[in-house]
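Throughout our pipeline, every protein is held as a single compact record rather than as scattered files. Nothing more is needed to write down the fold, since each code stands for a local backbone conformation. The record that follows is passed on verbatim for readers who wish to inspect the format.
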Amino acid sequence: MGALTLSPNLATWTIAALATLGVIVRPMGWPEAVWAVLGAGALVALGLLSPSTAWEGVLKGLDVYLFLVGMMLMSEVARKEGLFDWLASRAVRAARGSSHRLFTLIYAVGTLVTVFLSNDACAVVLTPAVYAAARAARVRDPLPYLFVCAFIANAASFVLPISNPANLVVFAEHMPPLTRWLAMFALPSALAILATYAVLWATQRRTLDAETVATDVAPAALSRTGAVAGFGIVATALVLIGASSFGRDLGLPTFVAGLATTLLVLALKRGGAVEVVRDVSWSVLPLVAGLFVLVEALEKTGVLALIAGTLARAAAAAPTETAWGAGTLIALACNLVNNLPAGLIAGAAVQAAQGAGTLPDTVAGAVLIGVDLGPNLSVTGSLATILWLTAIRREGQDVGFWRFLRLGLVVMPPALGLALAGLLLVH
């Protein structure tokens, strides 16, 4: 009997692992979404997951899909209407010929975008603007500036609850009030942001030293439709802050704001809908849906109950050591399975332990830091980084798994260690 019950579980874990490996390695150059969908399809085809259960998993990602569609629509419209080119010319002029000043300016803007619009928005909205700035500055290698978008999207993603959709997944109905959130995460966030900047700057300094930034950049004109796109992005940030303060889901407000901005711009232009729809990176949606189905299958194996029980027992015996261990382990796990499924599993386990009243806030906070910051290790660690990779590929750039990993091995651990230390220090 035991062998019969273990075998389906083992098969489920094997398929999930192979699908995740496909997302990371991209055999034959196939997109990440193909492997996630193939893995989900294999689970259903082999009878390891019923179609109805798989569909339940797909539906659990509805809020994420709406959020992404809203952000991608706004980003595409802003790109086409020249908003990014306008911002780029202003950024390059503000740099006054200094590659290091341009690097720091982009990092500061990336921090603000992540804090008030989320890490996914930083990847989707800021990356094209940064590439436009690098092109306007006529730099030889835009990657140091593009790396900023990838790393700050995760490093600043726990300043506010809205800074990363994963924050809402981990805490769910146990979400602390904003004042309590800031008391817990203000210091860890500051340490993570500063540490990431310092190490990233140090690793890119040689390239920046050899770089020249143009000073004769003519200011780009901002069209009326470009200004509308910009106001739409700002309005979306305000909507997200309001929704978060009332404990609402972020997907529908983002979708409505993005769609309204897009329709208004298209109405003013009197056309262009086909081009916008054609150029949005829709493949992200089946990728996310496939990952949700994989998580649904893993839940059926009983892994959540096992993790929740282990976490609760360890926290009762040694809360400080458990916080360190949980934060570090989940940070590494995010790079093995992506932080979306890892966050869903860890979040469900945290909620189960919190519901039983057996999990200290420090352990829950450490798990959240691991989910948010850990993905800076690898290019497939988080959805935000995958979105960033999609964005730079559209601009003719690419970063392989191993190149990003070599950089992530230097950048992520100091930030994670300092953030966890800061969390424990304020408690």
Summary: Residues 10-425 form one domain. The chain has one domain: 10-425. The CA atoms of residues 228 and 265 lie 7 Å apart. The longest helix spans residues 178-209.
